[in-house]
Amino acid sequence: xxxxxxxxxxxxxxxxxxxxxxxxxxxxxxxxxxxxxxxxxxxxxxxxxxxxxxxxxxxxxxxxxxxxxxxxxxxxxxxxxx
Length: 82
Known about the structure:
Layout: E1 13-16, E2 44-47, H1 48-53, E3 56-58, E4 65-67
Antiparallel strand pairs: 1-2, 3-4
């Protein structure tokens, strides 16, 4: 029988805005980083370990490192061209 993998409750889960990938609270309606309505799309959830290992790119406008998945920079609010 194959070993089943269960979620380790000690792993911290990060909830991210679906647009800028900035960290948000579970019940956030407007992202404090990019000001987008987070109720229109499902937020991303990942462990802290997954978050830290996600690839980063520099924002095309302000140059700060952001998650490659981000469509909007959480720092300057500019849309990204990937």
